[in-house]
Amino acid sequence: MSEREHEKKQRRRGRLFVLAGPSGVGKGTLRMRVLSDIDGLVYSISCTTRAPRDGEREGTDYRFISKQEFEDREKRGLFLEHAAVHGNFYGTLREDVERELAAGRDVLLEIDVQGAQQIRGLLPESVLIFVSPPSIAVLEERLRRRETESEEQIALRLANAKREMECIPAYDHVVLNDTLERASEDLRGIIASYRR
Length: 196
Ligand code: 5GP
Hints:
By secondary structure, the chain is of the alpha/beta class. Helices cover 45% and strands 20% of the residues. It has eight helices and nine strands. The two termini are 16 Å apart. Bound molecules: guanosine-5'-monophosphate.
């Protein structure tokens, strides 16, 4: 790399990519796929008040914190965005994202549609990507297969999903998650198109 190219690279601020969409649509799997394939793209680990599911690890999947700690961080303005989703609180730490963007790294958030809307208002140059299920019926089937939610939770997540799908026009891109292979290829292509 020439000195000039090196300098340009050093000055470049990273870009924020926001992956949003209904719970159970496969955002997590897609996110993991593209993260391992794209250099210089980092994931911002969210804070949540929900209890860890089997196999989830502190500091890798989420930062699991108490409701009181969440409220405290919210009052101190530490969250770039935050939302109540299906009865729990979720938030992205401002400092984490700022540090990575300032260092020139692109950051990927995997959040709900309320959070994505907040990001749109705060950082209009960010790229909003909606991950859509082929249908609500397919989403229901996936949520059931996951066996991590109660019937009540599934009903709540489906009702929210219907509302979330109405937000699609506000997004820069839609990735239809029919097959994982095709959807991750699409997502990779979208991200790559901003990084040329
Ligand atoms: P889950 O409990 O299934 O891990 O996540 C529930 C929903 O919360 C998902 O749609 C997930 O993308 C969203 N979520 C996870 N982290 C955040 C966050 O930091 N902010 C917001 N607004 N939503 C989040």
